TrEMBL record:
InterPro entries: Polyketide_cyclase/dehydratase (IPR019587), START-like_dom_sf (IPR023393). This is SRPBCC domain-containing protein. Transmembrane segments: none annotated.
Length: 146
């Protein structure tokens, strides 16, 4: 199962990336991912804390799969052990070449328990992604136009 969201940010990828990688300031603007700690290096582990649109808190320790400056940040999180409930989370920045960036925010879920949470993922998780996308757009664009 996959959730894909997208938003156009009126700023170049390097400006979007700067806000996206400024984990320390996430609590100031990000209504979905409240905290990321750790160094985002491939093969390393980070700590991610999210708050669902319903107010449920969840913290997990995914492994960084891709960290490509100004382009892509991807991690793999799992519940208990691999194959139960795994989520591959991706932030991708696409340069439109006109000073704007397409921000693709997606997650692919796999595992035995995914079907049990499918409806919740399609509604709540998608809503959280869309909220974060809007938050990111607002944060970046307010900094660019200052």
């Amino acid at each position: 199962m996959e959730i894909k969201t997208q938003i156009i940010v009126n700023a170049p990828p390097n400006k979007v990336w700067a806000v996206l990688m400024d984990f320390e300031n996430y609590p100031d603007w990000n209504s979905f991912i409240k905290r990321i700690t750790g160094k985002p290096k491939v093969g390393g582990q980070i700590l991610v804390s999210i708050v669902s649109p319903e107010g449920r808190h969840m913290t997990f320790k995914p492994t960084v799969l891709v960290f490509e400056h100004n382009k892509e940040f991807r991690w793999l999180g799992k519940l208990w052990f691999k194959g139960v409930f795994d989520g591959e989370h991706t932030f991708e920045l696409v340069d439109n070449g006109n000073g704007t960036t397409i921000f693709n925010h997606s997650e692919t879920f796999r595992g035995l328990l995914v079907s049990l949470f499918k409806k919740q993922l399609e509604i709540s998780t998608r809503s959280g992604f869309e909220r974060m996308n809007s938050d990111l757009k607002q944060r970046v664009e307010s900094q660019v136009h200052v």
